[in-house]
Amino acid sequence: MIKVAVCGANGKMGKEVVKAVSESSDMEFVAGIDLSNADFKTIEEAHNSKEIDILVDFTQPSSIYENALYCLNNSINIVIGTTGLNDEQINRLKELSEINKTACFIAPNFSTGAVLMMKFAQMAAKYFDNAEIIELHHNQKKDAPSGTAVKTAQLMAEAKNSFTNGNCAETETLKGARGANSYSDIHIHSVRMPGYMASQEVIFGSDGQTLTIRHDSTNRTCYMPGVLMAIKYAYENKKFTYGLDNIL
Predict the structure, then answer these.
(1) Is 137 a catalytic residue?
(2) 116 and 213 both lie in a single domain
(3) Strands 27-33 and 2-7
(4) What is the CATH number of the domain that holds 154?
(5) Is 141 an annotated catalytic residue?
């Protein structure tokens, strides 16, 4: 049995992970970690009291890096669903994972449909010179752009150096009107609004045609098969992994 702790256990995603792990035949939920109404308030408290094979983190952008550092420096394999890590932090976690031979699995999105959306966008990027990303989330999401949008842009950027081919010189009369200019000049636009959970559109354009690739999540249960896959993979492979696409 894989002994699993969940950090952020009382959050919306955390509750779904606790339920999925508890119902899995080859996993045991051993500790809920949250600042309120949980078994433990900190990872250190849980670590001192329970044997933990894998810690799953769905917390906050402001705390995920320190949580991951603690785990990797204390031989706790970690699966990270919290977004908001920057490139420098991700590189440091990769380094620690390799040094300490401890699994660090980071997934910007655990939905298999979202992962396919990213892969399709990566494929299309070879054939279009212009592209932008629109990501839409509920208004309680604290980081922008989403980790999924950032990962998508990174994958697309492998195809070419710029996706603003032929664009005229632009002037923003309102700052930010063109969104964030990310990898290979891919503009990312973040929408935060009640009524959405998680959606993303990747729009490609060329003379005479456009292509839109879109994915919508309508409930959080769609992420659980991917989370369970990541837990099993991290348990068996003590290394750094970035993206669910690496194990599909």
Answers:
(1) yes
(2) yes
(3) parallel
(4) 3.30.360.10
(5) yes
Q: Do the Cβ atoms of 244 and 107 come closer than 8 Å? A: yes
130 and 168 co-located in one domain: yes
Average pLDDT over residues 229-234: 98
Residue 212: beta bridge partners?
Answer: 203
Q: Which residues contact 102 (CB under 8 A, 6 or more apart)?
A: 71, 72, 75, 76, 77, 78, 96, 238
| Amino acid 95: pLDDT | 98
Q: Kindly report, residue by residue over 81-135, the tens digit of the pLDDT.
A: 998 899 999 999 999 999 999 999 999 889 999 999 999 999 999 999 999 999 9
Cα separations (Å) of 124 from 156, 188, 203, 205? 8, 17, 10, 10
Q: 146 and 196: one domain?
A: yes
What percent of the residues of the chain are helix, what percent strand, and what percent coil, each to the nearest 5? Answer: 35, 25, 40
Give the total number of structural domains in the chain: 2
Question: With b meaning 16 or more CB within 10 Å and e meaning fewer, what string describes 178-206?
Answer: bbbebbbbbbbbbeeeeebebbbbbbbbe
Q: Note down the domain range covering 101.
A: 2-106+220-246
User: Among the options 12, 19, 141, 238, which is catalytic?
Assistant: 141
The Cα–Cα gap between 18 and 105 comes to 18
Ramachandran region, residue 90 (left: φ > 0; alpha: ψ -120 to 50; beta: rest): alpha
CATH of the domain at 21: 3.40.50.720
Helix (H, G, I), strand (E, B) or coil at 90: helix
pLDDT, tens digit, for every residue of 147-171? Answer: 999 999 999 999 999 999 999 999 9
Kindly state whether residues 224 and 101 are assigned to the same domain: yes
The residue annotated as part of the active site, out of 137, 187, 189, 215, is: 137
Same domain, 11 and 92: yes
